[in-house]
Amino acid sequence: MRLSRLHPVFPVVKLQLAEDDPFPTRPRHEEPPPVLGQGEGEEWEVEEILDAKMRYRSVWFRVRWKGYDPSHDQTLRSGLEVALTAMAQMQAKRDLHSTMLAPGTSMGDHIARMRSLWQRANEVGAAISDADFVSTFIGSLGEEWDAVVPLLYGMKTSVEVISFVTMHAARLDN
């Protein structure tokens, strides 16, 4: 019986140092450093609150960190003052995104409601840009507007989109 077959052996002389970066052409995701906060320890900036739930008598948030991809999303328990602000922002965004043009509602009323919700969301710190509002507004219109949706997405500002929709709605009403 040969003992050399019991334990595989590799000669150390044949070992080489590994390259610093074995995949130099692969894109790197440089993660931002932590933000130095007022308190102790490191802090990171929150890009978006994705979800919130009550668990064990406290609010838990699903958080996306600014500068990081979705694989770094975390569920965290938050303090009350932060929780109230984050909940208000998330609820304002949900209200805006869930508003649809109801049958029988005038376009003027719908536009006023959407603008009011957008303003309220930004007042609580949701930071919804003009471009995001345009997408949300177009999505709120309904199937009867599908023929003009490509034209609307070609427009740059919410003022242009709302002006066009107002004129088009007036033509449809006559």
From TrEMBL:
Q: Which InterPro entries match?
A: Chromo-like_dom_sf (IPR016197), Chromo/chromo_shadow_dom (IPR000953)
Give one GO biological process term.
Answer: chromatin remodeling
Q: Which residues form the Chromo domain?
A: 44-75
The annotated region (Disordered) lies at 21-41
Which PROSITE patterns does the record cross-reference, listed alphabetically? CHROMO_2
CDD domains tied to this protein: CD_CSD
Query: Which protein is depicted?
Result: Chromo domain-containing protein
Q: Which organism is it from?
A: Mycena citricolor
